[in-house]
Please model this.
Amino acid sequence: MNIDLNATAVFMATQARLLDKRRFEVLFRDGDPAAALAALEGYRNPDGGYGHGLEPDCRSATSQPGGALHAFEVFAGVGPVTSPRAAELCDWLASISLPDGGIPFALPMPDPAGSAPFWAEADSSVSSLQITAIVAVTAHSVAVHDPAVAAHPWLANATRYCLDAIEKIEEAPHALVLAFAMKLVDRIGDTRLVEKLGKFIPDDGVVAVGGGIEGEAMRPLDFAPEPDGPARKLFTPEVIDADLRRVAGAQHEDGGWRVDYTSYSPAAALEWNGLFTMSTLGLLRANGLI
Model:
């Protein structure tokens, strides 16, 4: 499993947006975390949330939960450096949370051009386990080195909402809901709920994404990305090794990785290149392959 980081550096220089180039530099080229945080600032709104296409398929200028997810990815990636913007983002998330502690999949957007229908047409009156779980997972990654995020009431409330919602699951949920919920219980080490959700995952770890393109699926590493997490016990070492080889082997000759799902605008198609490559590199790095 040979990863060509030199080719990836060229890919990031030629096909990634500035933010993701800065993130790559921080992780692999001794880059300045302040530069990555400065690049993130361009996506921030005065209310403390993030928009402006930070989530490539949500082009709205308005602050959105999808933007919060990707902002937390940046805050996690610059650790142990911290930024007060992370706790401010928690403040914003608390302000949009519903009474049950969850957040809506998306908020109303007056400028939906270029945004995927599932963002633009989301019901903002109900909490979404899918988005709340993945935003909370990423916030927990920030909380490892940022005490202000770790102690923020929003994170505790969002996590509790997710755990309560997972307790109520009786039938196999959508693949994305299943993957994001599993990532959360894996991250916090709730072995009982890992086992509960694991009953919906086949031995090969492949769960088709309903409504996705042909062949789109969640796979073992989407459910169990952490080598020391309890979710790893759901899979044999051979299954995990095969999936690591699949991910590593998907590096293109130009050094990057590509998403296997639909992009909803020309800008998104380009921006996913760097963003998805960074996500993949993070996964491979966490598993000791870089």
Remarks:
- Strands lie at 207-208, 217-218.
